[in-house]
Amino acid sequence: MLTFIYMAYSMMGLLLETVPVFEDTWIECLGDLARYRMAIEDECLRDRETWTVVSRGWYKKASDKQPSVGRLYHHLAILARPSAIRQLFYYSKSLCVEIPFEAGRDSMMTLINPILEQNSSQASTVPPIDLAFVQCHGVMFSRKKPDMLSTAMAEFLGLLDNCIGRAARDWLEPGHLIGIANCCAVVGYGFVGNPIWTTIKPQRDADAEDPPPAEDEADTRTSQDLANALQLANKTHDVVLRRFGDPNVLSYFHVTLVFMNYLTSRPEAIPHMAPSFPWKLAALMLNTLLSECRTEQYPRIEGKVFPRPEEEDELQPRPLPEDWALRGLVWAADNFPSGWFSNDKLDEDERHFEIASHAGKRKERVLYLGCQIAAKSSEYLRYDSQVHQFNVSPQYDIDVNPMHISPADSSDLGELPDAPAAA
Ligand SMILES: *[C@@H]1O[C@H](CO)[C@@H](O)[C@H](O)[C@H]1NC(C)=O
Ligand SMILES: *[C@@H]1O[C@H](CO)[C@@H](O)[C@H](O)[C@H]1NC(C)=O
Question: CA angle 255-259-263, nearest 5°?
Fold first, then answer.
């Protein structure tokens, strides 16, 4: 087996060099072979890790060329172990792109099944908050153990604020993965019957590689499934968006607004979503960001064009880490200007690395999206360009409870029980 894989691997490498017309095929094959090599390695963990990295590299290369192919995200999900959150993100994404990978639904169950069997009082390699979050999605995706949903959701939401506070900058990545996974749940992971997915799903041509199951035998979803997903999304927003002025939640807010901006331009889809979106909180969060803006930034935020960083070389854009995560999703297709991902000088690590200039760009992007949403319809979010303030339509103008103080604030804890006694 080993010999075969090595032989095939070097043959593919040769084909890649000599027959570039089929480059996409060779690259994906190299990814497959490296993945098989990883899978049969059960002695040396280091080798396993090495082959995982090699395989992931080929699939990312392939995915760069075909960002709307779900199959490649599915393979990346397998390679994302042991991070349950990353796996969930990739599996969900593989179903919400232009060419969804329907066959991948069964693999998603290999992530979900063991996780639904666990409970947070047991020792687990998955951190409790991730466990609870994946359980929420596991119940919604599989419809197994429906009773578990409210417990898992309460557990996740109860840990969330504290977790963001502690992770600080390290929440930028889980933040956008969580945000996108929740959007995928709202569109029903591409299941037949989800009313939002029905209006936004890509039209398939007859030669689609794997046709969806016929309407009557499909696992169809009901309005209750949508209500569950909306509840999870709304409650997550409610915790995250109360962290006014926290720059570490902006990757989450950014991916959320990309979704909302897309839906606002879909009159058949937005009525399903809008009533459970906390518009008022979003407006307050946006105003907090505006208060930190310089006057000369207004035209970029309020303009109709995607705010490209001025100082940046047109030919070598540097997308935000969450831009790569959004790329390929049905609702992000029109979000980026052409050529946005064309900078091939960025290697894999650089893409995901948060650099200092990202914070300012992200803030601009979020405000720009807020203005786009307000410009499409005044039914939800509104923007007054005279005073540079966001507001909401009267329907959504609720009282937001006085800013809650997170119980984790050390000032509230008084004496720490395990603090060393003063000498
Ligand atoms: C979680 O596991 C513990 C120990 O295995 C068990 O006693 C408890 O009943 C479990 N809780 C749930 C909700 O399954
Ligand atoms: C959204 O969540 C908040 C906080 O839990 C709640 O007050 C509000 O009623 C929810 N909105 C909807 C439409 O469910």
Answer: 165
pLDDT digits (tens, 9 = 90+) for 315-353: 678 899 999 999 999 999 889 998 899 887 888 778 888
Rounded CA separation 192/107 (Å): 18
Tell me phi and psi for residue 61, to 5 degrees: -60, -45
CA-closest candidate to residue 358, choices 227, 254, 223? 254
Q: How far is the CA of 271 from the centre of ligand 2 (A)?
A: 16
* CA pair distance 282, 257, nearest whole angstrom: 9
The average confidence (pLDDT) of the chain is: 86
Decide if 263 contacts 331 (C-beta within 8 A): yes
Query: CA-CA distances (angstroms) from residue 26 to 9, 31, 73, 83?
Result: 10, 9, 17, 28
Q: What is the pLDDT of residues 148-167, one digit of tens each?
A: 999 999 999 999 999 999 99
Which tens digits make up the pLDDT trace of 47-67?
888 889 989 998 998 898 899
* pLDDT tier at 293, thresholds 50, 70, 90: confident
Around Cβ 284, how many Cβ atoms within 10 Å?
18
- Substitution site in 234, 236, 272, 280 for ligand 2 pocket (most atoms within 8 Å of beta carbon): 234
Closest CA to 63 of 75, 51, 80: 75
Ligand 2 center from residue 78 Cα (angstroms) = 35
- Give how far Cα 154 sits from Cα of 5, 26, 121, 129, 248, Å: 47, 46, 15, 10, 22
Contact 264, 377 (CB under 8 A): yes
pLDDT digits (tens, 9 = 90+) for 229-246: 999 999 999 999 999 989
- For 391, the 3-state DSSP assignment is strand
Instruction: Please give the number of the atom of ligand 2 that sits closest to the Cα of 235.
Output: 2
3-state secondary structure of 118: coil
- In whole angstroms, give the CA distance from residue 154 to residue 386: 42
* Residues ≥6 apart with Cβ < 8 Å to 331: 183, 187, 200, 258, 259, 262, 263
